[in-house]
Amino acid sequence: MDIRQLKYFIAVAEELSFRRAAERLYITQPPLSQQIRQLEEELDTQLLIRNTRQVSLTPAGEYFLGKARNIIRDTDQARYEVRDLGKQQQQKIRIGYSGTSTFVAPVMQRLKEYAAQQSGVSLHMVCGNATELQQKLLSDQLDLALIRNSQPPASPDLLYHHISEEQLYVLALADHPLMQQTIVHPRQLESCALVTYSRTDNTSLRLRIDHYLKENHCSPGNIIEVSDISAMINMVQFGLGVAILPESVARSFSEQFAARPASGRENSIGLYLCMSGQSSDIARHLFDKLQ
């Protein structure tokens, strides 16, 4: 006796017709009749009374119909519960990231390879600024974080790996005057509107840009603040200003815009992979893989 036979029997018992039951099950009548006969032989009991005009249930068939329905219901319920347990058992790694840290291709490639190899692990990505991400690591709300910053995390409770140090680039429309040269000097930015993150939305990159401008005695003509990279790119695309971004981010938009390195002092920003000292073994494994 198997589940398929029970479902076939229930269909015939409810339709009281082999033809209608076969249509309901999307099969032909011969295999349906064969499965019902095998079920009756296994039970050594006649379940159905067949004649040329109709099908009816024997007393044993009436009794077995209730049992068969219960078995199907319990089997379906068990299947759903087991699937839910499997999902709960799937391990989740919570990864925080600064707004521009996902543009670093080697890191994203390693993350992709890890996800493909670990079928029982799900990745949960959380965006935030450097301060927020470090706080979430320390409060066990995150397992790992990719953080843009000019300095490594100060907390002794955080482990970190310095992934890269990227030069700052100026991004603008290809026909912008600044793009007609190989390097952009800081003082040349004074004639431009600068599109950049607000200090609350991307603290570390904005602070680094502010520090870069101050160290090089530069005051842009106007500053347009945005909350995310999409808004920044749209502003640049419509010619409202230029943007200063890490090299990996600027180069990722090279088909739409032109990008030139920004010269001067303090013209780079780091990318750090950070982890709490209390992170799980699986988070530590990913920490090692992403380095």
From TrEMBL:
<dbReference type="InterPro" id="IPR036390">
    <property type="entry name" value="WH_DNA-bd_sf"/>
</dbReference>
<dbReference type="GO" id="GO:0003700">
    <property type="term" value="F:DNA-binding transcription factor activity"/>
</dbReference>
<keyword id="KW-0804">Transcription</keyword>
<comment type="similarity">
    <text>Belongs to the LysR transcriptional regulatory family.</text>
</comment>
<keyword id="KW-0238">DNA-binding</keyword>
<keyword id="KW-0805">Transcription regulation</keyword>
<dbReference type="InterPro" id="IPR036388">
    <property type="entry name" value="WH-like_DNA-bd_sf"/>
</dbReference>
<dbReference type="Pfam" id="PF00126">
    <property type="entry name" value="HTH_1"/>
</dbReference>
<protein>
    <submittedName>
        <fullName>LysR family transcriptional regulator</fullName>
    </submittedName>
</protein>
<dbReference type="InterPro" id="IPR000847">
    <property type="entry name" value="LysR_HTH_N"/>
</dbReference>
<dbReference type="Pfam" id="PF03466">
    <property type="entry name" value="LysR_substrate"/>
</dbReference>
<feature type="domain" description="HTH lysR-type">
    <location>
        <begin position="1"/>
        <end position="58"/>
    </location>
</feature>
<dbReference type="GO" id="GO:0032993">
    <property type="term" value="C:protein-DNA complex"/>
</dbReference>
<dbReference type="GO" id="GO:0003677">
    <property type="term" value="F:DNA binding"/>
</dbReference>
<dbReference type="InterPro" id="IPR005119">
    <property type="entry name" value="LysR_subst-bd"/>
</dbReference>
